Each structure stands twice: as C-alpha cells, then as structure tokens.
Amino acid sequence: MRPLQRTDYKDGMLDVLRVLTTVGDIGEKAWDERYDWLARRGDEYYILVVCDGQRKVVGTGAVIIERKFIHNLGMVGHIEDIAVAKDQQGKKLGLRIIEALGYIAQKVGCYKVRPAPSSSDPLCEAATLTETVQTILDCSETNEGFYVKCGYKRTGLEMALYYDKK
C-alpha cells in the first residue's frame, strides 16, 4: 500500500474506480492536472492505492480532511472512494485500506478518525476514555454489508441534492 502516484493513470487506477461508480472518459492530461491540484493540497487529500506484483492498481481509497470551527478548530476525516478490483475482492484489501486511512486521519489530528473501537483494533490504544473517536463514511445501501464487516454501523441518514452540469 502506498500513496497515489502520477503514473497510476497508466497502472489502472481509473479502472479500479469504475468498480465503484461512473468515472468518465478522463485523458492523461486531465489526470495530470487533477493529480497536481491534489498534490498541492497534500494536507487535505490522502489517496492510497494497493498494487499487485505487476504494479497494477487493484485497490484504492481516500481520506479528505475537513477543517472546522467547532471542537476547538478540529478536523474531521471523511473516508471516500473505497474500491477494489473485482478479481481481488474477498482478500480483505478494502478493510486494510480503510484501516490505513483511519490511521492517517488520526495521525494528522482528526477528532473523528476511525471505526468504533473493538478489542482487536490496534488503533484503539490511542483513544482515551473521554473522547468520541469515529470515522465518517458514506456508502450506498448495496455496500453496507461490507462496511458492517469492517466494524461500521449505520448511525444516520445521508441526503444529497444533485445539480445538472450546464
């Protein structure tokens, strides 16, 4: 597992994301522009990839750090875009990606940084008894079972308002 690299365009990153949702027809120039934009915001966007033995991207996920005025100028980590190639699913790659992203969020100082603690969770040791530590993760109902296996539970309702591109 490693951070996203510019060369991941050629190594199948977009194909892995297509397992999750619509990606679109993104050329290498557009990829490079977005990669550079994200790289300039290195303390806000953390994108990880898992590669196979041939450098092909087979899994990915991101944590986006939101800076807030509440909780003493606290930060919240939002886990997004967890995707694993279909031929690699069932190998706990998604779980490992989520755990790594939670660890990153915790290390950069997020007050909401990881799944609810369990006795087998190595990140538990960093939580004190007086703080609420969690990760915010939105997913479709189809993927809910996977996240339940990862230790997450349904805690609310997500709503969205979509805008037409003009």
**Main sheet specs:** 5 strands, mixed
- State the strand order across the main sheet: 1-2-3-4-5
Share of β-strand residues: 15-25%
Distance between the termini: 38 Å
Unreliable spans are 114-133
Class by helix and strand content?
Answer: alpha+beta
Number of helices: 5
* Helix-strand pattern: EHHEEHEHEH
Helix content: 25-40%
Name the average pLDDT: 81
Describe the structure.
- 25% of the residues lie in helices and 19% in strands.
- The protein is globular, with a radius of gyration of 16 Å.
- The chain has a five-stranded mixed sheet with strand order 1-2-3-4-5.
- It has helices at residues 13-17, 28-39, 70-73, 93-107, 144-149, and strands at 2-3, 45-51, 57-67, 75-84, 136-137.
- The chain contains five helices and five strands; from the N terminus they run βααββαβαβα.
- The chain has 166 residues and is α+β, with helices and mostly antiparallel strands.
- Residues 114-133 have low confidence and may be disordered.
Summarize the structure.
This protein is of the alpha+beta class.
What is the topology?
Blueprint: E1 2-3, H1 13-17, H2 28-39, E2 45-51, E3 57-67, H3 70-73, E4 75-84, H4 93-107, E5 136-137, H5 144-149
Parallel strand pairs: 4-5
Antiparallel strand pairs: 1-2, 2-3, 3-4
Features:
166 residues, alpha+beta, 5 helices, 25% helix, globular
